[in-house]
Design a protein that fits this description.
Order of helices and strands: HHEHHEEHH
Number of helices: 6
CATH architecture: Orthogonal Bundle
Distance between the termini: 27 Å
Strand order of the largest sheet: 1-3-2
Shape: elongated
CATH class: Mainly Alpha
Number of strands: 3
Strand content: 5-15%
Largest sheet: 3 strands, antiparallel
């Protein structure tokens, strides 16, 4: 890349490396979720509910804020599909009837319990070529970048 374009060669290489790494992680996530007949957004929803604690329940608003989904419409679509699969259920809050609570069903809890450790084991393999100190440095740098 020429200096005239205002971009340094190292900037171009760095961006390219981030894009390649992102694509690799996306591919691994997609392939993992396919094994369980889920897409990555559906897994994101049930994993978020699982992290909510013993009740495995949050409001739809909280779920939207805690997932990577771009809109409440996208979230509603995922909830519909997960509900059809018997993994989540909706209910209106007993106090605030406008608020909808989303929770994992027993089947949903069981599925996440099976998937969660395997998911992080598989994703962690992406870092197998790094030393522990390099992983720590990477975490610090990513944090500085706001990631």
């Amino acid at each position: 890349m020429s200096a005239d374009a205002g971009l340094s060669e190292s900037s171009v290489r760095l961006v390219t490396q981030f894009v390649l790494a992102s694509n690799q992680f996306t591919h691994v996530r997609c392939e993992f979720c396919k094994q369980y007949r889920l897409n990555t957004s559906e897994f994101d929803v049930i994993a978020t509910l699982y992290r909510a604690g013993d009740v495995y329940e949050v409001t739809a608003k909280e779920l939207k804020e805690q997932t990577l989904l771009p809109s409440s419409g996208a979230l509603s679509n995922r909830i519909d599909r997960l509900e059809a699969k018997g993994l989540v259920q909706r209910r209106h809050d007993t106090i605030d009837k406008r608020s909808v609570k989303i929770s994992l069903t027993e089947d949903g809890v069981e599925l996440v319990r099976q998937m969660y450790p395997k998911f992080f084991e598989q994703m962690s393999r992406q870092f197998s070529s790094l030393e522990p100190s390099e992983i720590e440095t990477l975490m610090v740098l990513m944090s500085k970048m706001g990631a």
